[in-house]
Amino acid sequence: MFDDRSPIYRQIAERIKADVLNGALKGDEQVMSTNQYAAFYRINPATAAKAFQQLVDEGVLYKKRGIGMFVSSGARDALRVKHRESFFAEVVDPMVAQAKAIGISLGDVIRHIEELEGR
């Protein structure tokens, strides 16, 4: 469910973003209400509301007054662009630095990745 690594509202927001990215939630699809989320995960509704507000601020969700919260139609593409921008800085650069530190050549790293891709 939730861990202690970050505030629960952030974990909720990240989980919803992951569902949008992997296609589990599609554009214009309705998401659970804050009260449903709070009841399902046994958390304070204000915590769920804070997560939803963050997602609205980021353009991932939008509100339909009196109806509920929905996934923005371009949310998946926007999230992909955002994740691609940070992928090299957060994943590849540290991996290359680590490989270099332990004596693995960039060529060996590339060969390994190509082998993984061929599986």
Describe the protein in words.
It is a single chain. This protein is mainly α. It has two domains: 8-73, Winged helix-like DNA-binding domain superfamily/Winged helix DNA-binding domain (Arc Repressor Mutant, subunit A, Orthogonal Bundle); 76-118. Helix content is 63%, strand content 7%. It has helices spanning 8-21, 34-41, 45-57, 75-101, 106-118, and strands spanning 61-64, 68-71. Strands 1-2 form a two-stranded antiparallel sheet. A hairpin with a 3-residue loop joins strand 1 and strand 2. Helix 1 (8-21) crosses helix 3 (45-57) and helix 2 crosses helix 3 (45-57). The longest helix is centred in the last third of the chain and has 27 residues, at 75-101. The protein is elongated and about 60 Å long. The mean pLDDT is 94.
Q: How many domains would you count in the coordinates? A: 2
The arrangement of helices and strands along the chain is HHHEEHH
Q: Cα-atom Rg, whole angstroms?
A: 19 Å
Strand content: 5-15%
Keywords: DNA-binding, Transcription, Transcription regulation
Protein name: DNA-binding transcriptional regulator YhcF (GntR family)
InterPro entries: Tscrpt_reg_HTH_GntR, WH-like_DNA-bd_sf, WH_DNA-bd_sf
Domain HTH gntR-type: 6-74
